[in-house]
Specification:
It comes from Streptomyces cyaneochromogenes. The chain is an all-beta fold. The protein is 2% helix and 54% strand. It contains one helix and 22 strands.
């Protein structure tokens, strides 16, 4: 949108189109304005618990021969034309000048409470970042509908407990645990994640590397239970690799004294 007054002043700003409006024709590039080096959460998956006041950042580099006047971005789930969900930055992106032609634009997605900001567990998974920038002289701009893909995942927790402690050498240890993940729809924090595979691992006292012994599947409540023979002092734990909707998790090692 552009505007001018009778004193010769002018203003040009890019606004987000109404999703109910006509479908766009795809990415748009006018002139030599370009966007590159797009990152979301420093390249790491966004892992959201059920707690309020969570945040992450996204940024990109924008260039134009005359420099960059402004730029911004938002995240969406589903298709660009009819998204299932949208996350906007809490404030307009800040574009910091690097040199005469280049700026770095950064958006802060703050004060996120998944129950209110998202509201559905089904929104966990791959999101896309729409990004745009405008040249300083107003003659060029770029609008990318899917500048980057980013996983926004449900946080997971995992526990492990080996018993009895201490244990006689050669006797059987029972290792229990529970895999849970954040619920974005209801109160109550994390709930058991059923039917998922977790690896049982052991680290001998005085070493730094865990060895995988077997793979266990969680029951209908997310519980894990298996047995192993006690041979030497060390740490027992479960580890979960994560899924397309849920973050990975590793339990703290539970030390067992073997006598």
């Amino acid at each position: 949108m552009t505007a001018a007054d009778d004193q010769g002043g002018s203003l040009r700003r890019t606004i987000t189109r109404a999703f109910a409006g006509p479908a766009p024709h795809g990415d748009e590039t006018v002139g030599a304005t370009r966007i590159s080096n797009v990152t979301v959460n420093a390249g790491k998956p966004v892992e959201l618990t059920d707690e309020p006041l969570q945040d992450f950042k996204a940024k990109f580099t924008a260039t134009a021969p005359s420099g960059i006047a402004s730029g911004d971005m938002y995240l969406y789930k589903g298709s660009y034309d009819t998204p299932d969900a949208v996350l906007y930055g809490t404030w307009p992106a800040a574009c910091t000048k690097v040199n005469a032609t280049t700026s770095t634009c950064e958006a802060h997605f703050a004060y996120i409470h998944p129950r209110w900001s998202l509201g559905r567990n089904s929104f966990a998974g791959t999101w896309k970042l729409a990004a745009w920038a405008e040249s300083a002289d107003g003659t060029g701009h770029v609008d990318l509908h899917a500048a980057k893909s980013a996983p926004i995942l449900r946080d997971a927790t995992l526990t492990a407990n080996a018993a009895p402690e201490p244990v006689t050498k050669g006797k059987t240890l029972t290792i229990t645990g529970k895999l849970s993940r954040a619920d974005w729809e209801t109160l109550g924090g994390h709930h058991g994640y059923a039917g998922q595979k977790a690896k049982l691992q052991f680290r001998k006292k005085g070493t730094s590397t865990y060895t995988t012994l077997k793979t266990i599947t969680t029951d209908s409540s997310g519980n894990l239970k298996t047995t192993a023979k006690a041979t030497t002092d060390g740490y027992w734990r479960y580890t979960f690799a994560g899924t397309s909707t849920t973050a990975p998790a590793t339990a703290a090692g539970d030390y067992v004294d073997v006598r």
